[in-house]
Amino acid sequence: MLKPQTPVPPLSIETAGHGRWTLADQTPEHFSMVVFYRGLHCPVCKTYAEVLARLKPQLAELGVEPVLISADTQTKAQETAEKWKIDGLPLGYGLTEADMRAWGLYVSRAIKDVEPDLFCEPGLFVVRPDGELYYAAVNSMPFGRPDLEAFTKSLAWVLKANYPGRGEA
What we know:
Blueprint: E1 12-15, E2 20-22, E3 31-36, H1 43-61, E4 64-69, H2 74-83, E5 91-93, H3 97-102, E6 107-109, E7 118-120, E8 123-127, E9 133-138, H4 148-161
Parallel strand pairs: 3-4, 4-5
Antiparallel strand pairs: 1-2, 1-5, 3-8, 6-7, 8-9
């Protein structure tokens, strides 16, 4: 299990139309928001990603830079970028099983033809520019994720209060 106030695992992934995205190379004012999603096959992920894209300007004002990442292939990621309303969000693809497990994500096997053989269940991680984990939410199902609008408001409070990452003990 990843613990707040400790370094996260390295992460470097190709994106659909944004080149290679490497967490260690990111320079947000306050946080990188790494959002792992199940893939193109997941309608719940589509809705979640579209809300994230809509909130991107508010997150940018807070100094938070989001990225979406899945185990989808390049072809499926490009299809996702075209079909979903997520303009401007880096969309990573090709997440490996080793990376899924290093980040503590739940891993599922396909039960439907539209699903990849192996894919991660959702996870949302907030990481400081130095690679320290601030916040983590990991789900074993597509539902039950943090409400992004409420979460964005919480991040504003966190930054104002200079609140530390919790769960470190």
